[in-house]
Write a structure and sequence with these properties.
protein dimerization activity
Length: 52
């Protein structure tokens, strides 16, 4: 398995955030699972940005 660079990981997380936001727009309601995923993605982004 190829090791991803920090930039690659950030881009992948950003794409997941976009997909999650698109799901928010399509859903009639926001599920606890979507909220949990959103929080986890935010935490990962913060960790990557705080620890270069």
């Amino acid at each position: 398995m190829q090791r991803l660079s920090k930039k690659d990981v950030l881009l992948e997380i950003e794409m997941l955030r976009k997909e999650l936001n698109d799901q928010y727009k399509k859903q009639a309601c926001i599920t606890p699972e979507l909220v949990s995923l959103s929080v986890q993605l935010d935490q990962l982004l913060n960790k990557l940005r705080l620890h270069p």
